[in-house]
Amino acid sequence: LPAAVFAVTSADALFAAVAGTAVAVAVIAVARHSTRRGALAGVLFGGAMLLSYGAPLLVLVPVALAAGTIGRAAWRTLAAMAAGAATVLVAVAGLGFWWLDGLATTRRLYWESVADVRPTAYLALAGNPGVLFAVVGPAVVAGLFLRQHRPAALLSIGAVAAVVLADASLLSKGEVERIWLPFVPWLAVVAPGHRRGWLAAQAAVALALEAVLVTPW
Prior knowledge:
217 residues; 12 helices; mainly alpha; globular
């Protein structure tokens, strides 16, 4: 994936790894109707939420899978996951940090700085999506429009929904090549299989990004 260009130069790769582990455990928990794994996923999600304010949106990936499963066991798993995440946040609140206050303060400070001068409509409607398409590469973009097997399609639907909400939040006016790294793996599940043409296209985009763009990370 062209996203590797930014993953190796940004702390957001660490955030993506923690969030990705949480989502992976959650997906396995939903698929196997395991409340224990669901609780573990929740604890991991709680940790991810302390690293990135965008992490909670990734819960839409296992939620989409649960919605497609249509079974009470899947929703019990999600309830266990919510309890696990709440446990982490309550524990941290006991140490003096309330997550919602942190989110509100971050949003205020962001809008008092760079967000105030960056064009909202352009970035939300064209800039951010365009950068994301470049970061995931043509194989993933094509995969999003191809008919997919049900599990992969459900995971990607959840990821797309998370991206849309992240974009609408206006907490990422630019810099999404690194900030949205946690969403990339769950969009990539719909990429076509091992085909040399797509692999070459992905590599070409990655090399072009590295050669043309100059970023501080």
